[in-house]
What we know:
This protein is mainly α. The protein has one domain. The chain is built from eight helices and no strands. The chain has helices at about 1-20, 25-35, 40-50, 50-70, 70-95, 120-140, 145-165, 170-195. Helix 5 packs antiparallel against helix 8 and helix 6 (about 120-140) runs antiparallel to helix 7 (about 145-165). Mean pLDDT is about 85; it is low at about 195-205.
Amino acid sequence: MFCLVLLAAIATTAFVAGVDTDSDEANLLARIQDSPLPGTFVSNLVREITTTEADIVVGVALALLLWVTGSRRHAIAFCVLLIALPLVQHELKVLVDRDRPPYNPDDLWSQPSSLSFPSGHVMSATVVYGWLAYCALSQPWPGPARWAAGIVAATALLMTSLSSVYLAVHWPTDVVGGYFWGLTLLLPTIALADSRTVPLRTGHSRK
């Protein structure tokens, strides 16, 4: 699974870096902008609360929750992931060096200042809210808490990508790249957190 995701992330990056934005992607962007939903206000609100910085704050709170509830291995692995996230994201943006779609000040509260690929909002949400979804499935939380965590995670993952394209702050392939690169960081961290070292048994010898 991880190898497929990594290959998809590399392929998407190579495609975006190797070609100019084509007319099909520009047309898709225009069609999404013409739709009535999610709307400018909701999209701006989603982008304000799902910045990389805001997602890291949510992630730190989640790591603390895991720590105090005894899941310390998961908390430490997640903290390492949160440290790696902005570093990898920045290097990818610099590597691809893709311009944003044309800026419309009527649609945004603030002009994006970073490069376009991958979408930082989507990549960060994939890491943080993907981890939240994983916790909802794996942690011994009460049923209502697990359902609430799953709903919040799914909503954040969907709305972050949709709002980014709706406001034309990202090309659709920026969103795809954000998902793939977020999963590239997330999946091995989950595997590491779930790994167990089998202790050697002593006091018995084989003959």
